[in-house]
Automatic annotation (TrEMBL):
Record organism: Roseibium aquae
InterPro entries listed in its UniProt record: AAA+_ATPase, ABC_AA/LPS_Transport, ABC_transporter-like_ATP-bd, ABC_transptr_urea_ATP-bd_UrtD, P-loop_NTPase
GO molecular function, one term: ATP hydrolysis activity
Residue ranges of every copy of the ABC transporter domain listed in the record: 5-246
Classification via Pfam families: ABC_tran
CDD domains according to UniProt: ABC_Mj1267_LivG_branched
SUPFAM superfamilies in the record: P-loop containing nucleoside triphosphate hydrolases (SSF52540)
Family annotation (Gene3D superfamilies): P-loop containing nucleotide triphosphate hydrolases
Protein name as annotated: ABC transporter ATP-binding protein
NCBIfam families: urea_trans_UrtD
A GO cellular component annotation in the UniProt record: plasma membrane
Keyword ATP-binding included in the entry's annotation: yes
Keywords: ATP-binding, Nucleotide-binding, Transport
PROSITE patterns: ABC_TRANSPORTER_2
Length: 246
């Protein structure tokens, strides 16, 4: 029986350069995982492979039990299966309210124009309220998203992804540019989100990774260099050498 996501022996080259080199990775529901590694380690390419944006030259990417071959599916089919990705910069509709942003996401309709003509029913509004509570923005539902702080916009975007009911969430540097209080809220939010889903956080900030308190996968030159608790991987000599550039 495989995990929720099982990546086995995946490689991809760009113009002869091996960006991902025989990478294996797996994660299950209920798990929060931090993926770290120096610039160029392959973190973005790894997420591109999982979401179907980049096709590997070899290896397997399987989803669920029994394992379904993700390499046969398009990017949008993969998204519909339940893999959500959050890029670093928040992309919320700044001229719409928090409530309407969440409603649009719930309807899988990211077009603000058609949302103007959409009448939400009580079930939708209940779900929006639930999402707002989960991301800690219940007090801000009537506000324009453009009035939110940077951190609040990031939480709103996470809420918009959760609205689509993902089983796996890939999040790129969620704490970048946040205040200490916002970072704490983000930690809680991600931990909570991972209770019923799998969440992968790509992160540079070690202090934030420490707060997450989860298993860490260290990538280097497109492969897994070390995996384990933050303390275990940061005392691993190979990891120390890579981070000190030896
Ligand atoms: P990270 O996100 O860890 O910084 P990336 O996945 O962005 O690393 O990149 C891994 C390596 O692959 C880098 O050396 C990068 O220059 C190279 N790379 C990534 N995408 C492309 C591409 N489309 N064409 C050529 N090289 C690429």
């Amino acid at each position: 029986m495989g995990a929720l996501l099982e990546v086995s022996g995946v490689s991809v080259s760009f113009d002869g350069f091996k960006a991902i080199n025989n990478l294996s990775f797996s994660i299950d529901t209920g798990e929060l995982r931090a993926v770290i590694g120096p610039n160029g380690a392959g973190k973005t390419t790894f997420m591109d492979i999982v979401t179907g944006k980049t096709r590997p030259d070899s290896g397997k990417v399987e989803w669920g039990r029994p394992g379904r071959d993700l390499l046969r599916l398009s990017e949008s089919q993969i998204a519909r299966l339940g893999i959500g990705r959050k890029f670093q910069r928040p992309t919320v509709f700044v001229t719409q309210t928090v409530q309407d942003n969440l409603l649009m996401a719930l309807k899988k309709d990211r077009d603000p124009l058609s949302a103007l003509f959409y009448r939400a029913d009580a079930v939708d509004l209940g779900k929006v309220e639930e999402l707002a509570v989960e991301i800690g923005l219940q007090e801000h539902l009537p506000r324009l998203a453009g009035e939110l702080s940077h951190g609040q916009k990031q939480w709103l975007e996470i809420g918009m992804l959760l609205a689509q009911d993902p089983q796996l969430l890939l999040v790129d540097e969620p704490a970048a540019g946040m205040t200490p209080a916002e970072r704490e809220h983000t930690t809680d939010l991600l931990k909570r989100a991972a209770q019923t889903r799998a969440v992968v956080v790509v992160e540079h900030d070690m202090e934030f990774v420490r707060r997450l308190g989860c298993k860490v996968t260290v990538l280097h030159e497109g492969a897994v260099l070390a995996e384990g608790s933050l303390d275990a991987v940061t005392s691993n000599q190979d990891v120390i050498d890579v981070y000190l550039g030896r």
